[in-house]
Amino acid sequence: MSSSSSSYCTVIGLFLAFLLGGSSCNGQLTPTFYNETCSNVTSIVRGVIEQALLTDTRIGASLIRLHFHDCFVNGCDGSILLNNTDTIESEKEAAPNNNSVRGFGVVDDIKTALESACPGIVSCADILAIASEASVSLAGGPSWDVLLGRRDGTTANRSGANLALPGPSETIAAIKLKFSNVGLNTTDVVALSGAHTFGRARCLTFGNRLYNFTGVGDSDPTLNSTYLETLKGICAENGTGTDLTNLDLTTPDAFDNKYYSNLQVNEGLLQSDQELFSTTGEDTIDIVNNYSANQTAFFASFVASMIKMGNISVLTGTQGEIRLNCAAVNANATSGSDGLLHSSI
Ligand code: HEM
User: Fold this and answer.
1) Known catalytic membership, residue 67
2) Given 67, 69, 196, 342, which residue is catalytic?
3) Cβ neighbours, 10 Å, residue 130
4) Residues of the chain whose pLDDT is less than 50?
5) What pTM does this model have?
6) Which one of 64, 88, 269, 321 is at 20 to 30 Å from 5 when CA atoms are compared?
7) How many helices (H) and strands (E) does the chain have?
8) At 152, phi and psi to the nearest 5?
């Protein structure tokens, strides 16, 4: 940017800061965005999550996944939080999300707490970004300064969610492509997959690896045989597929680098996890080995990739809105299809 356009940006930015109660210019997010307007935002979000963790050890994992599924579809604009209406086809019902993503009630609780402390200031998209950092650090992972100033979108994109979100049985090439479509590279794929260091997955997301990997009643040869038997004990061959197991069998609720050492001994749960280490010739193998040997390197990469992911196609300045209810755009805040003012799941 030239110095004249940058000083123009500063003047406009200051004017917008005055009008909008924050500081943002040309799509730039900043960690100080709410310093003057909602200075306790981080501790408020963290407090609600700490409370939720007391009864739901999985909630942090669920919240960071919401941020990921938000950012990959129309950018980080809170679109995943919107309910169906006459004009909105919710992303919640896209195949990768339906009966899978969770945590909407806690997002609502965070929004309620923030509306009480600083009404109309903090976007739902920013709530997901702040909640992700809080969830990771509360589980023993790294802390970082979250970049803020996102505004909320006014539409959802269900077909976009069906296309853009990676699936657990996809090839590594397909997953890399989906990441590169939103500006993320191979290192980002490996580092962000490390979020599978906590949380759960349903049997139907990896059941083919146990009972019918290539259509002849076989199992995935890259699955450790003891782990295979354990998983068969959890997931019945003709079961509903809705039973849950830990994504990280070693330290299920801790945010650490055990996810990568699991891959080295063929104990990745999802096919897409194990492929990062087991696909011959892939450039992901060295990265897995590095993160497995060096948790500090993993944490540094994870933070850098989370910041990149959190920057995908953000709305700032006069774009979008600050939703009052994360489940509905402001114009429809009282007329969601279920007539409810909460996210309902
Ligand atoms: C690389 C491609 C990825 C694929 C194929 C993938 C796939 C999945 C699947 C299938 C599940 C289980 C869903 C279910 O049981 O219904 C899951 C859970 C999860 N994913 Fe991913 N994921 C990927 C990347 C990521 C990224 C980038 C993040 C975050 C930065 C993430 C965070 C999580 C978390 C924390 C859970 C557990 C959620 C909970 O317990 O509620 N995933 N993922």
Assistant:
1) no
2) 69
3) 24
4) 1-26, 333-345
5) 0.91
6) 321
7) 14, 2
8) -90, 140
